[in-house]
Amino acid sequence: MTQSTVLVVEDESVVALDIKLQLEDLGFRILGPVASGEAALSLAASHGPDLTLMDIRLAGQLDGVATAAQLGALHAIPVVFLTSHSDAETVQRAAETGAYGYLTKPFQIKELRAGIEVALTKARLERQLKESERWFASTLKCVQDGVVVTAQDARVRFMNPAAERLTGWRLEDALGKAASEVLPYRPDNREAASPIPSAVELALAEGRVVGVRHARRLLTRNQGLVPVDESAGPVDDDVGQRMGAVVVIRDARSRLLHEDQLRSSEARFRSAFDHAPLGMALVSMAGRFIQVNAALSKLLDVAPETLQDRFVDEFSVALDTEHESMRLQELTVKRIPLVQFEKRFLRGMQREPVWALVSVSLISQGDEPTCFLYQIHDLTDQKQAAERLAMLAEQRIKLEVSEQTMRTREEFFSRASHEMRTPLNAVLGFAQLLQLARDHEPERTRTYADRIITAGTHLLAMVNDVLDIQKTADGELRLRIEAVSLNDVVRTAVEFLLSAAKAHSVSLTMQMPPDLLVKADPTRLRQVLLNVISNAVKYNRPGGTVEVQAHAQPDGIELIVNDTGLGLTSDQLAHVFQPFNRLGRENSSIEGVGLGLVITRGLLEKMGGAIHVKSQADVGTQ
């Protein structure tokens, strides 16, 4: 426990010393003793004692009463008078200083100790009370709401600065005034003359808390009217005795203005919502319609009251609901402002699907989402227009393809007729010569017959090629797909062309891994190999080479034919699959009509394969 300090002020030195010794024995710390009021004030200022034990008759200009008054005013130090004077006048003067005790000499040490302890406890409690009051007052001064405290008789004891601003009353002017005078209210009907009782008056009269009464019209001291929200409650002591009341008033002007703006905003939203040309709906977080507008009701061909509280999924195509749910989760989880998606609603009793573009935003109150705002745009016209455009585009493509096919056929038959005319003229010419020379020139006759056979064979091959191309294009070519030994087919083709390679002084070889099988028509595969390898031989150069290789790949078999022939330019490569285009070799002695690669590509595609050509002029072709 902290040792209390007592200042002893006594002009009789023997008595002062006795008091000092006895108090020290009791555990007190002693300042002094001093004999004059002036010395007591000086010592109190420098050391700040907890209590002063004061005689009334002192040396010097100040007596004990005057000194006690200054100690209380300057330092708030409690004083206990210890004197031999007990006349009424002296006692009255001492009482006016707010003394904490009055003991007369002679005294018993127990009485002195009790007096000092009581005075110290009382002083401590008063300090705590004053500190509490200061905290309370400081707090109320910082509160934005007006606070008015009244006594039991409803007269003002305190009001904070906010209450001063709202009422127009200053605290010093309002103290002791009736609450009804400081807080007069006027009814909403301006013609009513009698004032309405304030909440503080009701709290005092009925002993209960009066809840907030909104937008009461407070008449200020300067006769202005301010809307305030008012509440009040009684204040009772520890034993339930009524001490007074406290009333809280809050300026309601900004709230009322905000409410007016909110009502205007809600009215504008309501008008925009109800009269919007596109469908709009408020949908709960559980997916139920809360509110729909006329446009959505018309789109779905369902009355608004029928849609109320129904699930959106009930009017949606089932296949579209999962995607819609995923997009709504983006709003709630990722907190993006808006999502858009297309979906199909079901219209009317017939449940006819209707395409719509849906825009959804999340409406929240604070951080808590409350509902979704759906904006639904009917896409029926756009979808129908898109379908018409797609149909027109398809028709245009078909027309273009048909026209291109006709042009290709015209070009094809023009080239075919040109190519056929040459062997036919040879057949006719040599037949006429044969007719003239049959009797007297047998050797020439045989020559003419051989040429007729050659020309006819060429013509027949060309007709067969044309028929193959036509059947491939028309899908009439019949194939017999089976597992074929690629090694056997390649060997057959190579052996068949060895004599031709020898005649052209070209080396023809093959490097094939064993047991390679492919799914193909064996006859058509052999035709493909003969076409490709024969081209490699024919368009080669003396001393050149042709090599056939095969490799197993993850997605099939790659068959490669490499030659060291004349090669092709990039421009020639662009036309390599054009019918009857011999790529500048038309006037050469090399036989052909320009259909071999065209037929080869068509056959390979029908058998699930493909052909690619790489070439470099004067280097060779692969």
Could you list the spans in which at least 5 consecutive residues all have pLDDT below 50? none
Task: Give the tally of β-strands.
Answer: 23
- Alpha carbon gyration radius: 59 Å
What structural class should be given to the helix and strand makeup?
A: alpha+beta
Approximate shape: elongated
Main beta sheet: strand number and arrangement? 6 strands, antiparallel
Our count of helices gives 19
Strand order of the largest sheet: 7-6-11-10-9-8
- Distance N to C terminus: 111 Å
Mean residue pLDDT: 83
Roughly what percent helix? Answer: 40-55%
Strand coverage percent: 15-25%
Keywords:
622 residues, five-stranded parallel beta sheet, 23 strands, 47% helix, elongated
In short:
The protein is of the alpha+beta class. Helix content is 47%, strand content 23%.
Can you characterise this structure?
Helices cover 47% and strands 23% of the residues. With 622 residues, the protein is of the alpha+beta class. It has a six-stranded antiparallel beta sheet.
In terms of topology, how is this protein built?
Elements: E1 5-9, H1 13-25, E2 29-34, H2 37-47, E3 51-54, H3 64-75, E4 79-83, H4 88-96, E5 101-104, H5 109-142, E6 146-151, E7 156-159, H6 161-167, H7 171-174, H8 179-182, E8 185-186, H9 199-206, E9 210-219, E10 225-236, E11 242-251, H10 253-275, E12 279-284, E13 289-292, H11 294-300, H12 304-307, H13 318-333, E14 339-347, E15 352-365, E16 368-378, H14 380-437, H15 442-474, E17 482-485, H16 486-503, E18 507-511, E19 517-520, H17 522-538, E20 545-553, E21 556-563, H18 570-573, H19 596-606, E22 615-616, E23 620-621
Parallel strand pairs: 1-2, 1-3, 3-4, 4-5, 18-20
Antiparallel strand pairs: 6-7, 6-11, 8-9, 9-10, 10-11, 12-13, 12-16, 14-15, 15-16, 17-19, 20-21, 22-23
Helix pairs in contact: 2-3, 14-15, 15-19, 16-17, 17-19
